[in-house]
Amino acid sequence: MKLNYHHLYYFWQVAKSGHLTRTAEALHVSQSSLSQQIRQLEERLGQALFIREGRQLHLSEAGRLAFDYAETIFTQGEELSALFAEGGHAHREVVRVGAVATLSRNFQEGFVRPLLGRDDLDLILQSGGMDDLLRRLSAHKLDVVLSNQPVRGDSEHPWRSQRLARQPVSLIAAPHLSPPPAFPKGLSGHAFILPGVENATRHAFDQLCSHYRLTPKIAAEVDDMAMMRLLARDTQHIAVMPPVVVRDELHNGTLKDYGALPGVWEEFYAITIQRRFESPSLKALLTRSGESLLD
Amino acid sequence: MKLNYHHLYYFWQVAKSGHLTRTAEALHVSQSSLSQQIRQLEERLGQALFIREGRQLHLSEAGRLAFDYAETIFTQGEELSALFAEGGHAHREVVRVGAVATLSRNFQEGFVRPLLGRDDLDLILQSGGMDDLLRRLSAHKLDVVLSNQPVRGDSEHPWRSQRLARQPVSLIAAPHLSPPPAFPKGLSGHAFILPGVENATRHAFDQLCSHYRLTPKIAAEVDDMAMMRLLARDTQHIAVMPPVVVRDELHNGTLKDYGALPGVWEEFYAITIQRRFESPSLKALLTRSGESLLD
DNA sequence: ATAAATCGTTCTTTAAAACAGAACGAACAG
DNA sequence: CTGTTCGTTCTGTTTTAAAGAACGATTTAT
Predict the structure, then answer these.
(1) Which of A56, A81, A111, B98 could hold B133 in an S-S bridge, CB 3.0 to 4.6 Å?
(2) Would the keyword Membrane be found if you checked this record's keyword annotation (chains A, B) (predicted)?
């Protein structure tokens, strides 16, 4: 037995104003009709939504609960309605991409590159924390979230994490360092700029160090790749990061790649909610091979 | 001309499965009925929601948009429905209070104290950042947010900030300090533990210092009142905080109150969204005099 | 290649709902 | 005590949703 949204709508309107007669006039229906349909809703839900005191209506506790739901339901509906009302113009395709703020900008750019040239489509890029982005994903305010970590979905949040690409992680530092850093030997006297502890790359790095019984000196822990790039450029410390991030600096000799760390990868995941109808453009993005994303 | 949620529901169901006939069977209606009502929805919105290719249905861009809205609308509806379905038992009153994590725990406790004894009511307390809490407030997942700062509401977010109480802010430190700190003189040689710069109390403190041309030495900036309490207890520095926070320590002599700062107040605000029907218990909380909150 | 089956649309009829109007009763104002 | 106001209930009417049949287009099977 399904919930009747028509009834719920009337309930919502009456609950908002608190008056049956006035609402009936505003909605251009008779008060008897309103009264009946609200009663039907109450019967359907099995509980009184209003407490009748004399000739006044007060929300019951159940009513307050229902009202909260009705509020989000119908504000959404009105938003939708308004969206279609404003000019009958056809809707352009929209792809909304969220990326965790700590993600390499190069990668983000590589991901959306196929969409950049197209003027038949709106691209929306948003940065944020993982929690925030996933919330937006669940609320259908985003189509995909880019992250360097997969997430485990559950029945309530049926997220799907798909690895798009992985890239090696190197020791990056100023050129002409002496002694030149190398892994696993030749690190003495150097300090490190590392990703923060909640980063998966950092975890892999720590494991690697532990395996070789190294306790590297840490100069800084940085979450943001753009920030790490700056620090690598402006200090004499060794940054542990994917070379792509500092591609330009490597090319023009400002920085040098002292070699990749074995078994340490920066990984990239696309997190989506499984849907029957994915946007065709997004689908195309997700089925590309990983290579083209990382150059 | 209002949006027909009945039509939207059918559209949502068909869009989810992608098949009209199967959906018709699942919903126990004829496919003709489904087809017609979806067509009516399209006419109402002025745009095709499905693209008919041969005998297949694909979502149009407008359809994808509508589907996203429908999704949130009807998942909310199903949640509501489920809530009432699980046993016909009457709903207990619920008061959901959010508090910014930096707020004094004493104050939070004082605020909800009248509700603690009542077993006819569920109390839900949540901590979090201001952004997060306000989002929950807007989504009707919270009834009130406690903060030490007011927020300005706008048309989209009609928040109402109501000052509940204010309390003096004192210099708090270990007893028997020499020289005993005093304001505005007698601060030399002492360092301070202060609230973070985004805190309104800190702002008032800085203004006061600037007025007396003082540049106090800062030992630590702490956002969390509970943390500040610990630091005050375990260091020799002077904490700038409301005495309430360390009431116990003041009482048993672990800490000493060296006097209130003139014109500096810690303020407490309750942020709500204006509604016609507030929970009576919440209403009672909000109309109390401020004094009882702070002892 | 042609027949049969599948799937969505359209038209017409039938069933179900939403609706309006009148009668009723309780609460409040003067 | 007498209007008037406001919500409820009952009854008949109107509107809307639903079912069924006919149709056309597309895919599958023979």
Answers:
(1) B98
(2) no
**Does the nearest atom of strand C lie within 7 Å of B52's Cβ?**
yes
Across A34-48, A245-259, B155-169, B180-194, least confident range: B180-194
Per-residue CA distances from B95 to A65, B284, B291 (Å):
11, 12, 22
> Contact A94/B61, CB-based, under 8 Å?
yes
CATH number, position B117: 3.40.190.10
Smallest Cα distance from B25 to chain A, Å: 16
Question: Least CB-CB distance to A5: which of B68, B69, B77?
Answer: B77
**Domain stop point among A59, A85, A111:** A85
Confidence category of residue B172, pLDDT binned at 50, 70, 90: very high
Residue B58 Cβ under 7 A from any strand C atom? no
Hey, is the C-beta of B128 within 8 angstroms of any chain A C-beta? no
- A139 plus A273 within the same structural domain: yes
Beta carbon pairs, A and B, within 8 Å = 118
pLDDT of res. A33: 94
**Which bases of chain C are under 7 A from a protein CB atom?**
6-11, 18-23, 25-28
pLDDT of residue B86: 76
| Contact by Cβ (8 Å): A133, A148 | no
Averaged pLDDT of chain B: 86
DSSP string, B10-38: HHHHHHHHS-HHHHHHHHTS-HHHHHHHH
Evaluated on CA atoms A236, A237, A240, A241, the torsion sign reads negative
pLDDT tens profile A139-148: 778 899 999 8
Domain count within chain A:
3
State the pLDDT at residue B89: 64
Q: Are B59 and B80 members of one domain?
A: yes
Q: What is the pLDDT of residue A148?
A: 87
Check if A48 contacts B (Cβ < 8 Å). Answer: no
How far is CA B126 from each of CA A204, B95, B144, rounded to the nearest angstrom? 35, 11, 10
Are residues B159 and B170 part of one domain? no
Contacting B residues, span 96-125, partner chain A, CB-CB under 8 Å: none
Domain span including residue B182: 166-266
Nucleotide with C1' nearest the A52 CA: D7
